[in-house]
Amino acid sequence: MIDVQGYAALDPSKPLAPFSFQRRTPGERDVQIEILFCGVCHSDLHTARNEWHNTLYPSVPGHEIVGRVTAIGQAVTNFKVGDIAGVGCLVDSCRHCASCGEGLEQYCEKGFTGTYNGPVFGGENTFGGYSDSIVVDEKYVLRIKHPDNLAAVAPLLCAGITTYSPLRQWKVGPGQKVGVVGLGGLGHMAVKIAKAMGAHVVLFTTSPDKKEDALRLGAAEVVISKNKEEMAAHASSLDFILNTVAAPHDLDALLALLKRDATMTLVGAPATPHPSPSVFNLIFKRRRLAGSLIGGIAETQEMLDFCAEHGIVADIEMIRMQDINEAYERMLKSDVKYRFVIDMATLQQR
Questions:
Q1: Which of 71, 169, 224, 251 is the most buried (most CB within 10 A)?
Q2: pTM above 0.85?
């Protein structure tokens, strides 16, 4: 076994604190990674505080991992010691169901194994990237082709693939008018990726002070969603909407922006449900309301390669491991542009 240092939530009411645990010694198909950087996802906070009512304690969050390979099993063929590698939201799946067979491990019928908090349908706990190292089967390890700025690559492993996957699934591309709702950790990645795919991007936000940033990131237009006149100007005009907001809100005003047969896909995961949308808003234009999770391993690799080709990384604020609890409080206030990333070299500091 390998001794590991990290930070963990021990129960929902206490701040994260230093935590020692063990990982398995690398098996023949395993890759051991020294974690250099780990992004901070809102899912980390939800899990640490048991807001989804499924947390296994102690909980070591973190599923936006970039690091250096330090050891490999004898059967590993895709990585060598010294490579820069990534680990995203899942580290295993059943490998036999129809979804796994199609490279959609995130929809594994038996439940994928999360990088932290264990298998979806229950099982042994797993510990994530708020730690100095991780051991993962090479099938679930990603190649990083970005030449530099690796800290800003880390959020691609969740925020990047969470937005890339639905944009690809609904075939976003040139000539389309695409809405992105919310300019946070997910939304700012959605704007960058949709722009790189060739779409005309319209950013919808409740915050007028985000307009300048949205335009800088690649939005062609910015709409203040509380302004009824601005919203009405885009009625029935959008080919697709990616809704990244992780708080309950009225979906009807957004659905009214879709063309006939167009789709709004939800990727934000609020702790309590959205108000139910009006059926009439859907049936009179044959509009669709959909959801999307992350992506499978192949699609996540595709996303990383796409982002490397187009020079896309997250806008980040680097923090020390010891500042994670303060970062959580700031994240609740949307006081970050646009993703915190932990410099894991600070883990040993006091």
A1: 251
A2: yes
